[in-house]
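I am still learning, so would you mind making up any protein sequence you like and the tokens describing how it folds?
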Amino acid sequence: MSDFLEAIRKRGIGALDKKMGIEIIEASPERLVGTMPVEGNTQPIGLLHGGANVVLAESLGSIGNTTPCWGG
């Protein structure tokens, strides 16, 4: 596991990220990869909700923007 991924997991993720099921699976200074399940994040017709996409993008952007600062 990378130092960045370990730091993210140690710090934890936000409450909304937990509710959405977002998981960070890869982290480095150059790349951040996260997953989010479709189940539980759908529109009434069963498709992934557009707002869920925005939450995933914003969460990864926020984490990715601050993670390099943790290295010292």
